[in-house]
Design brief:
83 residues, alpha+beta, 2 helices
Amino acid sequence: MKDIIKKYSNGEVTIVWRPAICQHSEICFHGLPDVFNPKASPWITPEGSTTERIINQVKQCPSGALSFYLNSEAPADEDQTSA
């Protein structure tokens, strides 16, 4: 099975989601529902909060399915494709 990776950016930070390893702990959307809403499409909307709050929430993901990088620090060869 192909490892699907989806990216969502607010221009400053990019949230990286790996659905194959998500444990569905619900910590993300209980902690920051303005960004993480499983009933919406797309379910991640980084425009809904500040970069700082997004980073703090993503760091709480127990499975590692959510990660992030600052766009200003992304490697030059990083695929910037978003979902």
